[in-house]
Amino acid sequence: FNITIDEYDALSQRQGGVCAICRSKETMKNKYGLKRLAVDHNHLTGKIRGLLCGRCNQALGLFASDEEGVGRLLSAVEYMRRNNV
Questions:
Q1: Within 10 Å of residue 36's Cβ, how many Cβ atoms?
Q2: Between 45 and 15, where is the model more confident?
Q3: Does the structure show a pLDDT above 90 at 16?
Q4: How far is residue 74's CA from residue 65's CA, in Å, rounded to a whole number?
Q5: Nearest-5° angle of CA 47, CA 53, CA 68?
Q6: Arithmetic mean of pLDDT over the chain
Q7: What is the reported pLDDT for 42?
């Protein structure tokens, strides 16, 4: 996403260098080594929400960045809780 290295580093420092959702360090790799945390942003407004690990970013990406998508995400959480998973 379109932020400077300094902005990225400041955001990473505020989050303690971990994912804003699962609070884990990045574990996904690419051909250069360990990937950096992904810059998560609202696709409608462009507002940056935080940095996410690859797994959380992919999972969140499966749900749209709108109110309907948030509803589906909450329904998925409720489903998992009901089924003790």
A1: 14
A2: 15
A3: yes
A4: 13
A5: 50
A6: 90
A7: 85
Delineate the domains of the chain, giving CATH numbers in brackets.
5-82 (3.40.1800.10)
For the chain, what is the HEC assignment? CCCCHHHHHHHHHHCCCCCCCCCCCCCCEECCEECCCEEEECCCCCCEEEEECHHHHHHHHCCCCCHHHHHHHHHHHHHHHHCCC
- Report the sign of the C-alpha dihedral through residues 45, 59, 49, 36, in that order: negative
Cα distance between residue 31 and residue 39, in whole Å: 19
pLDDT in tens, 4-15: 999 999 999 999
Q: What is the pLDDT of residue 33?
A: 84
pLDDT at 72 exceeding the cut of 80: yes
Q: How far apart are the first and last CA of the chain?
A: 34
